[in-house]
Amino acid sequence: MESKQWDVQIFISEDDNDDVTTAKAVLMTPDGRRRECVAYARRNPVDQPVPAIGDELAAGRALADMAGKLMRDGAEDVAQLAEHAPRAW
Known about the structure:
The chain is α+β, with helices and mostly antiparallel strands. It is 38% helix and 28% strand. The chain is built from 1 helix and 3 strands.
């Protein structure tokens, strides 16, 4: 059985006021496909700044978006294979 590893890099940045956190998740598959997702977390102005919370929320949202894109890619690949499959009558 073949074992594979896909690595996702997450880049996190915060604005100067710690109000908005941006996370970019990047996946490069071994076959050269690149998937990139960007997501944000915004701090409520009445809340104290806790950067780790913004990091977690933004990264989680970027990864959730990545999961959705990968699921759509897989579904499209299955549909394409089904179109070209021989039919048994």
